[in-house]
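Q: Sequence in, structure out?
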Amino acid sequence: MQAWTRLCAAAVLATVWQISGPAAMAQNQSGSSSGQSTTGVAPSSEKIPDHKIDAAAAALQRVAKLHDEFQQQMERVAEQAREAAAKAVAEQGLSLEEYASILETAQKDDEVRQKLLQRIPPADSGEKNGTNK
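A: Exactly. Output:
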């Protein structure tokens, strides 16, 4: 599941990069080669050919659809993560309310926080299921 989340995040970042990166580079290149200012001002509509506007409209529609699709996927992944976390808590014999209460107390009480942290084994200790009691 963690790999899936990373994949979704990478896809979103790649999409954003593809949209903003080349556009910014093209703007800088065209601005510096033609003597135009690189202040981020878009060219006037007279300078943009209709076929480029058509292409931008199609791309915008596709990017919006991709955004919606990835948003839905991220929501599903988040729900799966919540369910897995609830299962992990229940497998330790705690209700979600008990778990939340303990963590809230640990945030406020140094002694409880230290006790809690002392009971967490190092990540490389080989503990896979966290069932040592």
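DSSP finds four helices and no strands in the chain.
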